[in-house]
């Protein structure tokens, strides 16, 4: 079984009042306008659960289907979002957004991939595993 760390980052428009911070806690974000992934995704469930533990419900401006749409909404200034830091790499093409490291312990997740020792992976499965492990842990957060 392979394991890899995944850090969540706060995505926000450049010039946002919180964009000057190197890192920030979730508690400081709860009064912001949010761009969210559709309910039922692991990330949406996690974020909403953490908001509930703080006794609040996030002010969601819009729910979208994917990270590309999240970045477009953030770029448009509609709010902030939480996304896996490593997933932001392809979105460097969106000028006007930046990310800030989230400091909460729960914002670092461990991804596990397990396969039977004696099984051969299909080409698609092998490509997925290689993709998941192509970025070094030290490069997971890049603003």
Automatic annotation (TrEMBL):
GO CC annotation: cytosol
Transmembrane segments: none
Any Gene Ontology biological process: regulation of DNA-templated transcription
Classification via Pfam families: LysR_substrate
Residues in LysR substrate-binding domain copies: 5-132
Cross-referenced InterPro entries: HTH-type_LysR_regulators, LysR_subst-bd
PANTHER family, per the entry: HTH-TYPE TRANSCRIPTIONAL REGULATOR YBHD, LYSR FAMILY TRANSCRIPTIONAL REGULATOR
Identification of the protein by name: LysR family transcriptional regulator
């Amino acid at each position: 079984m392979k394991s890899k760390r995944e850090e969540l980052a706060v995505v926000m428009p450049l010039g946002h009042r919180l964009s000057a911070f190197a890192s920030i806690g979730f508690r400081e974000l709860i009064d912001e306008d949010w761009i969210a992934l559709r309910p039922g995704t692991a990330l949406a469930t996690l974020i909403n659960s953490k908001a509930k533990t703080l006794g609040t419900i996030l002010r969601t401006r819009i729910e979208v289907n994917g990270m590309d749409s999240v970045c477009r909404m953030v770029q448009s200034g509609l709010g902030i979002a939480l996304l896996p830091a490593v997933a932001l790499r392809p979105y460097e093409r969106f000028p006007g957004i930046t990310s800030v490291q989230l400091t909460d312990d729960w914002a670092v997740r461990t991804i596990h991939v397990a396969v039977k020792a004696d099984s051969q992976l299909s080409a698609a499965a092998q490509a997925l595993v290689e993709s998941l492990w192509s970025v070094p842990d030290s490069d997971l957060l890049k603003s």
